[in-house]
Amino acid sequence: MNNVLIPLEFELAAIQIAQNHFPWLRFQLSPIQEEGIVYNRSSDAIYFEAYFQNSLIDYDPLHKNNYYPSFNFYLLPGKRLIQLSGWWRNHVLTFIYAPGDPEPYNKHWQNEKNLAISCPYPDGDKFEQMATALFPLVQEYLVGYER
C-alpha cells in the first residue's frame, strides 16, 4: 500500500465544492487505496467524511460526536471519468460522470449491482453538480491530465 497524499489545493477546493452543496456539513478528506483495484495511476480514491457544521454537542467541528455518516462518499478519479459513490437508504449508489462521452451516456446512476437507476431524490442532483465541478480539479491535481 502506497502512502498517497492529496494535494492541498485539491483538498481545499473539493471541500469548498462539497460544502457549497451541503452547507450544514463540514467535510474531511482522506486518501483510500485498496489492493488489487486500480482507479488511476496512483491507485487512490478519496473519502469524504461528513460532520455537522453547527453542532451544539462539541465545539470541535470534526469531533466524533458530530460525525454524520449518511453523507460520507467516495470520489474515484480517472482520466476519462469520475465516480461519486456512497450509501443512500441502505444501498450503495454511484454517479458516473464522463464529460467526453456523448449525451445521454456521459452521466448516469447505478446501484451496487451495476444496474442503471434514476437520479435519487432529493440529493442526486447535488451530487451531479459536485461531479461536474470536481472533474476539472481531478484532471489537474490527481491524474496528470494532458490537454
Question: What do you see in this structure?
Answer:
- The chain has two helices and seven strands; from the N terminus they run H-E-E-E-E-E-E-E-H.
- By secondary structure, it is of the alpha+beta class.
- A seven-stranded antiparallel beta sheet has the order 1-2-3-4-5-6-7.
- A hairpin with a 5-residue loop joins strand 3 and strand 4.
- It is globular.
What would you say about this model in short?
The chain contains two helices and seven strands. By secondary structure, the protein is an alpha+beta fold.
Fill in the keyword field for this structure.
globular, alpha+beta, seven-stranded antiparallel beta sheet, 7 strands, 27% strand
**Which bin fits the share of residues in helices?**
10-25%
Largest beta-sheet characterization: 7 strands, antiparallel
State the strand order across the main sheet: 1-2-3-4-5-6-7
Rg, nearest Å = 15 Å
Mean pLDDT: 79
Structural class: alpha+beta
The count of helical stretches stands at 2
Reconstruct the topology from this structure.
Layout: H1 8-21, E1 25-32, E2 45-52, E3 73-76, E4 82-88, E5 91-97, E6 107-110, E7 116-117, H2 124-141
Antiparallel strand pairs: 1-2, 2-3, 3-4, 4-5, 5-6, 6-7
